[in-house]
Amino acid sequence: MTRAFSHLLVHLSAKLCTVACMHAIPELNTPSVFIKNRQQVEGIIRQLVAGGPEKLQVIADFDHTLSKHSHEGQIIATCFGILENSSAMPQIYKDQVTQLKEIYYPIEFCHEMTNQEKYPYMVEWWTKAQSIFVQCELYKETITEMVAQTKCVLRDGSERLLYKLYKHGVPLLVFSAGIGDILEEVMRQKSTMHDNVKVVSNYMEYNGNGKVIGFKGNLIHTFSKNESAIENSDYFEKLSHRHNIILMGDSIGDCHMADGCPSPEATLKIGFLNHGVDRLLSKYQDLYDIVLVQDGTMDVPTAIINRIF
């Protein structure tokens, strides 16, 4: 057998293995799935499968990642949106945060600016929004009522997926630039706040009467969801034996959520592109291994995890 023929066989074998895997996961071949390098994705999935649940950890954004972006023709509220939609919040709060969004939201998704250039604007946005919120004299017991009154829908299949991770002891880090108190309440009401879940987010600080007086710790925004947000935590160190990662996010900044993991062996990044497809698809394909366009389900992540365990 000549060397050239031997190399050809190896190449054909790799191609056939890739095709076999993609057929074994039919969810990867649907119109909403965009994969820039299918052979690379196949290799990562093979590593995840070989490692099994014992080597796996999952990192996910919450707003419009675990939760849907839209449902029955309506945009689903984010953690901050739950506040804006609540009858418990004064109109002046809603007006002021709407004005902030009109200023800073276009900057967050500006294609011409780098993340570093956007960073100070995001700090301004979140800091101003939190300051306005604190002035509303909210109390802790109101959070449960707010979440119950506001429609926050998780992606189809989220409950099953999160329960499966829990049953197999796979740690789930929910990394959010929203409000942790509201996020956790949503997950509790949806029966998805299991013991394997750790939330890193912005948490309210209360006085002895349960009144919100500020926020704890460092500010977490869209472009600070990386190792700097949990620099005082030993979370990743405790999971240092879990070298395989599935990451899920919906923003450009979310692709960096696993940056604090020491020595990862295989990282599969799944990006949910919910809007601006024509403008952002190419960018998302550069950042994420798999891009799911306007997909309101957890079908693809679930299908991949079903291959692992």
Task: Name some characteristics of this structure.
DNA polymerase, domain 1, about 15% strand, 2 domains, two-stranded antiparallel ribbon, alpha/beta, Rossmann fold, about 300 residues, seven-stranded mixed beta sheet
How many domains? The number is 2
Report the major sheet: 7 strands, mixed
Radius of gyration: 21 Å
User: What name does CATH use for the topology of the largest domain?
Assistant: Rossmann fold
- Kindly report the average pLDDT value: 89
End-to-end Cα distance: 39 Å
Which architecture of the largest domain does the CATH hierarchy give at level 2? 3-Layer(aba) Sandwich
Fraction in beta strands: 15-25%
What is the 3D shape? globular
- Count the strands? 11
H/E element order: HEHEEEHHHHHEHEEEHEEHEH
CATH class of the largest domain: Alpha Beta
Subcellular location: Cytoplasm
Pfam families: UMPH-1
InterPro entries: HAD-like_sf (IPR036412), HAD_sf (IPR023214), Pyrimidine_nucleotidase_eu (IPR006434)
Organism: Priapulus caudatus
